[in-house]
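Margin note from the TA: students keep mixing up input and output lines. Inputs are the sequences; the output is the structure of the whole complex. Example:
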Amino acid sequence: MTKELLKGNEAIAEAAVRAGVEAYFGYPITPQTELLEYMARRMPELKRAFLQAESEVAAINMVYGAAAAGARVMTSSSSPGVSLMMEGISYIVASEVPCVLVDVMRGGPGLGNIAPSQADYFQIVKGGGHGDYRLIVLAPATVQEAIDLTYQSFDIAERYRTMVVILADGNIGQMMEPAELPPMHAANGGHNGQRASWALTGAKGRPHNVITSIYLVPEVEEQFNQKLQAKFRKIAENEIRYAEYATEDAEWLVVGFGTSGRVAQTAVKQARAKGIKAGLLRPISLWPYPEKRLAELANNVRGILVVEMNAGQMLEDVRLAVSGRAPVKFYGRMGGTVPLPDEVLDEIIRLTKESNS
Amino acid sequence: MQSEIIVSGFGGQGALFAGQLLAYAGMDAGYHVTWIPSYGPEMRGGTAHCTTIISDDEIGSPLVRHPSAAIVMNAPSLDKYEPLIAPGGVLVVNTSLTARKPTRADITIVEVPANAIAEELGSAKLANMVLVGALLAAANFLSVEALEAALEAHLPPRHRKLIEANRQALRRGASIAATVRQRGVETLVMT
């Protein structure tokens, strides 16, 4: 396979196609619209389902229906559109049906703007919809990683019968990088048309299946919640992902995900060139969070800098994991602005000076 | 080694395509590359710019504050990017659409009447390729041949009939820049 120069949004779409996605439902919104546009052309070409819904509320409920029928299904949107999907997301997780959501975050709150942002970490990682639920959240930092995570996300969603979110930002969606696409699966991802035993496929000749999220008796609902929590614990054991750069002998640790993570990596390189022993932890799974690894690293560093394109959201997870082992500082840009390496480098230098004084 | 190039102009001038072509050529030459556009509620006649990075190492940030080179295709782009270019960098100015002279003394400045040359070659739309050719001759991070090969390899079928004209524009831009460069002057003025 040779590398092609691919735009993030289109690369994610093609990766989903190659993972065997059978149905795409969505509604256009910048900065993810190229993903929907790509699907509008590609899915009919392969005789798979593409439907532009009348709204994001409709799109997520179409995803719910197709997932209940056992189809490999996805949607994509950006911040305000994902806000509209929150009720459906809670229902989908509670109904234990697998699907994939791609959220290419933009500046907010409110209508905000269409520039890159990471301000929906709380919404996606901590909730947004109602009830005790978790989403498996994967945050790519490169076009190649966006492809790889999207390709794997359908298998992960089906393994746990839950929703996986690819949490990107406008930079990842709009950027072009050389990347390699994975091999093409048939529709339904290599299941050869076989539907899962729980799926609603017509009950002729077998007991009927029920997909629901309603449990009117509180004790029964509690029992179901316990089952869900057991599943989330299993996911937390198995699905943690992160990348590290120059952490072996690091005295100063920078933590950032997605675009902030790769910007921070440049700053860490620049700091090393100045003789500052900096390192980078880039969480890839935002839930489950790489808290154990972060705690280990925190034991060996003199200070930690968290870099985000928001007012300090993942920062809370870093503080929980670090739990006082090292001082934690924050540098954030908001509203659709992206930090540049020299800003992050200045913050690393400030961190070293503050801790030395 | 890392080269960061900003191409900036009015929407419709081909600034984004020029940056993409540099990225394709860099990728085909075996380098790490990123290309990131300005995107916004934009339209023809509005501003458009992109950042292309070509590096022999993994690229962290796809954005830079001080690029090693900039192609400015109109007056607002000259005002915005001339002060930002890293010392020792290259500024390629489209003098057809800029009134003032660049003032930096610590960078190589290449002034090209790109629209006039492009019209001479048959289409004002070739101005972007004239400027890219001039940049390559002045900055030496990729060859003109590598750009020509990238055009051949990556231009979509519906645009293939334009390859020859684009190639001519690249060469014209490169040859003028090279000629003036050989005179050893710091400010390279195209005539």
